[in-house]
Amino acid sequence: MSTSDVFDDISKCLSYGLESRAKLFKRLCGKRIIDLCLHMPVYTIEKVYTEQLTKSHIGKIVTTRIYVEHIERAYPRSRRPSIVLGKCGKDVVEILLFNYASPSYLHKSFPQGQTVFISGKLCESYKYNFQFVNPERLASQAAAVNASGIFNIYPLTTGIYQNSIYGAMKSALKYLENTGIPEWLPSETLSTNNFSSFSEAIAEIHRPGSIGYSDLVTPARRRLCFDEVLAEQIGIRLSNFTDRAVIIIQNDKVLINKLLQILEFSLTNSQNEALGEILSDISSGTRMMRLLQGDVGSGKTIVAILAILYAVESGYQCAFLAPTEILARQHYRIIARYFDQLWIGTELLTANEKGKARQRILGNIETGAAKVLVGTHAILTESVKFQNLGLVIIDEQHRFGVDQRLQLIDKGNNPHILSMTATPIPRTMVMAFYGDIAVSSITEKPVGRAPITTSSVQISRLPEVLESIRKIIDQGQKVYWVCPLIEESTKVDYTCVINRFEYLKEYFPDDVQMLYGKMKSCEKQEIFQGFMEGRFHILVSTTVIEVGVDVQDATVMIIENAEKFGLSQLHQLRGRVGRGTLPSYCILVFDPKLSSKISMDRIRVIKSSNDGFYIAEKDLLLRGGGEIFGTRQSGQKKYRTFDINNPDNQSIVYETLKQTSKLAAEIVDQGNIDDYSILLKIFSTEKVTNIRQSF
Ligand code: ADP
Ligand code: MG
What we know:
The chain is α/β, with parallel strands linked by helices. The chain is 39% helix and 18% strand.
C-alpha cells in the first residue's frame, strides 16, 4: 500500500457495493480517506441479543428472533404504518413499519409463517406485549448474534447506514496505520497533556465501545481537538503574514474634515484616539491588522467611516463586511447618507441584489466608479472584483473564519484590515482569534446617553410587564421582545417566538410583528423597516437582532428565558436599547424552574453592570471563556473533532486555545512550519496550504 495514503480519495476504502455511494460519503465526511477518519462518532449504544424479551429490555436496542404470523399492509401513500404481528417465545410482538411502500418488499422482508431476525429499540405496546418501530432486518442468526455488543453511532446521510460507516472506517484505519503519520507535537506538549499519537488517538476513538464522544473527556479526543485548533491557529498567523508590497495612504484629510463638519455630533476622545491609531497604521508602510474594540453603542461605526474616507481620498476602494443582512443594510444606509453629500459612490451587495441590479453594482466596483462596497458574505464571492481595494472593515469579525479573511485579502492588492468587535476580550483571546494584531479600544461612551435600567422578573409576572409596556408604547417608544428559539423544542420548554407573538397580539392587536432566522431575508428586511419607521412598536424576535442594529427610539428590551443566554449575549442584546437620549429599560424574564445557579449568577452580573469589559471578565470566570466563542450565533465556525456548543467542552477548548496560540506563534515566528505540513494538510483548506507554500 506504499503508493496509497490517507490523503487518497475516500472511494478507495469503499468495498464493492458501497462504491456507488462515494458521492454520498464525500458529502458526509469529505473527499479524502483522512476525512473519513475524522468523521467522529456522536455516541455509543449497546445492543442486546435475546430470544426471551422482558420488561427490563424496554428502551434498549434489542436483537431478537420473531416468528411472523400476520401482516397488515398500509394503503400506499398512507401515513399509517404497515403492521407485522409475530411471536417471540410466548410474547406477541407488534412491528410498525413506516414507509414500507412496496408490498413485495414487505412480504419478502417479513415472510408469513417464517422466522426473521430483527434489531431495534424495544418499546412498550398498548395492545400487545412489545413493540418495534422500523427495526433493522438481519440476514441470519449469526448476523444477529454478531450485531450485539457496544457500537459507535456516527452522523449519517440518506443512503448511508451505520454498517456502511463501520466497513469503510475499518479500511480507512488500515490506510492510516500504513501511512506512518509523523509526530508533530513537541514531546513536552505530549507529556503534559497525556496525549498519545495522532493515529493512535483516531484509532481509539473509532474502536467500538469507547466512551465520551461529544465531550472532550478522553485524552484521545482532546488530542484531536488540540490538533484541529492548532492547525487553525497556524492558519490565522499565516493569514496575517504577507510578503506583498504594502499600500501607503497619506493625504490632507480633506474628506474627513468635511464629514466632521456635517456630523451632528463631535467625536469622543476615545474615538479620536482610535482613529489616530488607524490612520497612522495605514500611512506607515506596514500593512494594518488592527482590532477596534468598543462596547456596544460606543460608536465604532463612525470611526470606521472616517478611516474609509481617508482611503477614498487617496483613490482607494473600501469594503465594509457585516455579519448579517440587516446589519449590512443599516451600515449602508448610514454610510450612503453621509457619502452622497460628499459625492462618493457607495454600493450595497447581499444575496438579495440579483439580476440587472447586481450586474450594475459589480460593474461599478470593477471599474472603480463606486468607491465603497458594503455587504455580507456576498462580497466574498468570485464575481466581485475590485479595481483597487485598499481597506477592508470587518464588523464583528469573530464570525468570519480564516478562509474568509484570506478570500478578502485575495481580492485586493494586500489591503489594510480593520476588524471591529463589541465583545471586549482579554489579550490571550485576542491572540487566539486574530493572531498578533494591534488593538485600539474605545473606552468611553458618547455623552448624553440616558442610562439603561436592568431588572429581572419571573415569568409568572408577565402581566405586569405588559402593563408597563403599554405605557411605553403610548409615548411612541418601541420595544424589542427576544425569545431564544423559533420552533417548539420537545426537550426544553422554551417560549417560542410564534407563541409569544400570538399572545402579544391579543393585547396589542396592530402593534406587534415577528422576526426569526429562518424567514426569507426580504421579509425580514420589510419587517425591520416597518419597526424602524414606527408602523408597529413591538418586535418579537429570536436573536437575529443581536448584532449592531441601531433604532434610536427603541427603549425597552425584554429578554425571555434570560437564563438560557450567555453573559456577553445578554449584554449585546441589552445594547440595542439606550441608543438615544431617552431612559431605557432591559427586563430579563426568567423561569425559576429552568434556572441553574450559574444562570442566576449571570442575571445578577448583568443587572449589576453596564460595562462590557467588566462583563467579559466575569464571563471568563463563570464560563471559562465560553461565550466568546459565539455560542448559538449564526455563521459560526464548526469544528470537526468536537462540539463547540457543548458547554462541558468550553473550558477545555479555552485551555487548548491558550496552549495552541502560543505554540502556533512560536512555530510561525521560528519558521518551523514545514514540521507541521502534515497537520495542515489534514485540517486546513487549500487556501491555507497555499500560503504555507509561499511562506
Ligand atoms: P457600536 O460601537 O455598537 O457599533 P454605533 O457605531 O452603532 O455603535 O453607534 C451607536 C450610536 O451612537 C449611533 O447612532 C451613532 O451615530 C452614535 N454616536 C457615535 N459616536 C457618537 C458621539 N461621539 N456622540 C454622539 N453620538 C455618537
Ligand atoms: Mg456596531
